[in-house]
Amino acid sequence: KNEVEQSPQNLTAQEGEFITINCSYSVGISALHWLQQHPGGGIVSLFMLSSGKKKHGRLIATINIQEKHSSLHITASHPRDSAVYICAVKPNTGTASKLTFGTGTRLQVTL
Amino acid sequence: EPEVTQTPSHQVTQMGQEVILRCVPISNHLYFYWYRQILGQKVEFLVSFYNNEISEKSEIFDDQFSVERPDGSNFTLKIRSTKLEDSAMYFCASRPSGRIADTQYFGPGTRLTVL
Fold first, then answer.
1. CA distance linking residue B33 with residue B50, whole number of Å
2. Is B63 exposed, middle or buried (0-12, 13-18, 19+ CB in 10 A)?
């Protein structure tokens, strides 16, 4: 079983729709990251959370530590949001904050 | 805004050859990482590096792999004798400190193709 599970694996939305991507994890963590991977392969860090909620522009990330669950929301989606969104956690074990990654959610936003 | 850079962006090599992938982390960062992503698969941790030594490594990071910070700015990943299955995107990342609140900053990646 993967330590980090994301759903859905693939998501197609129309421009303007509200989007939710979910991440569940099975280990104790000290932080959770949401990352965006563009079609060319580059990775950009969107959020790092250890509790509560963060907002940046049209993006909102929430985390429930007790339920081991996080969500990434995109409001008023746009075709430029099309990318793979990756959840990654920093487990409590280990010394150097290595990340354990989910398989990603491929988002396609159409006009 | 400071960023992590990686060179080359794409490297093609023959099986059995040595490759060195280069990264320049953000200048005041202290923790450095290599990750890889085989095409169609998830990103996987390879190794972390702090205070001029490896602090953690995965099962993937066997004797064929080594890392070095030769001059205080570059952070390199060497694969001694490449195999076909080493073909992947390799990402470098850096982090300012060990504080939980510090995020990792990723480079753009090097696509390694082993023929």
1. 9
2. exposed
R_g of chain B computed on alpha carbons:
13
d(Cα B115, Cα B75) in Å, to the nearest integer? Answer: 25
Say if strands A29-37 and A83-91 run parallel, antiparallel, or are unpaired: antiparallel
**Residues B37, B88 contacting (CB under 8 angstroms):** yes
Closest among A16, A4, A2, A9 to A85, alpha carbons compared: A9
Maximum mean pLDDT: which of A10-19, A36-45, A97-106: A10-19
Q: Identity (one letter) of the amino acid at A47?
A: F
Q: Are B55 and B45 in contact (CB under 8 A)?
A: no
**pLDDT, tens digit (0-9, with 9 covering 90-100), for B45-91:** 999 999 889 999 999 999 999 999 988 789 999 999 999 999 999 99
3-class secondary-structure state, position A89: strand
For A109, which DSSP code? E
Smallest CA-to-CA distance from A106 within A3, A21, A16 is with A21
Inter-chain CB pairs, A–B, below 8 Å: 65
User: In one letter, which amino acid is A49?
Assistant: L
B55 vs A33, A95, A102: nearest CB: A95
Instruction: Say which of B35, B41, B103 has its CB closest to residue A45.
Output: B103
Q: How far apart are CA A32 and CA B9, in angstroms?
A: 28
Q: Which two tokens stand for residue A25?
A: 């994890």
Preceding amide of B8 cis, omega within 30: yes
A51–chain B nearest CA distance, Å? 11
